[in-house]
Design a protein that fits this description.
Length: 167
């Protein structure tokens, strides 16, 4: 009967541990979905990767995104552009999409790598590539909307899993 007493003690200790774990999990889940009101004036100048990453996260907060969603979106931006809109030499961050014969099919522009075939031009989401480059806040807000609509898979960094190294 000594073994039965030992088992009961073991169960009592581990049941208490499981209950404590459940309580902590509930608290963490609440923390992840609760957003603190953010003053939009805390946006930093769009320039270096650290400031741009900060701005992306602030815009996610302003949009009411859950902590886990904010992390994913921010990591996708990191995977797409390294949080840069312009390179240190002043040239825009862009990626040329080439066909099998080497011909230019389209170009992805800026911090969110907006594709000019699908999203830039008359009647599309953005009027010009120059607008995309000059308005990173508008571009990030558009990406947030796309994320909320379930379209994060439109970004290669998400599809390829490249974003995970930025989490």
């Amino acid at each position: 009967m000594n073994w039965l007493k030992s088992i009961r003690q073991w169960l009592a200790i581990h049941t208490e541990w499981v209950e404590e774990f459940d309580n902590r999990s509930a608290i963490l889940a609440t923390m992840e979905t609760t957003t603190t009101p953010v003053n939009p004036d805390v946006l930093l100048p769009w320039g270096n990767a650290a400031d741009n990453r900060h701005n992306v996260r602030v815009l996610c907060d302003l949009a009411g995104m859950a902590f886990s969603d904010k992390n994913i979106l921010c990591a996708v931006v990191g995977g797409e552009s390294g949080w840069l809109n312009y390179l240190p030499d002043g040239n825009p961050v862009k990626h040329e999409n080439l066909g099998v014969n080497g011909s230019l099919l389209s170009t992805d522009w800026g911090i969110c790598q907006i594709n000019d075939y699908w999203h830039i031009g008359q009647g599309k989401d953005f009027p010009t590539a120059e607008y995309v480059m000059a308005n990173p806040e508008a571009v990030v807000n558009w990406m947030i909307t796309m994320y909320k609509e379930g379209n994060i898979k439109d970004w290669d960094a998400y599809l390829s899993g490249n974003y995970k190294k930025y989490l």
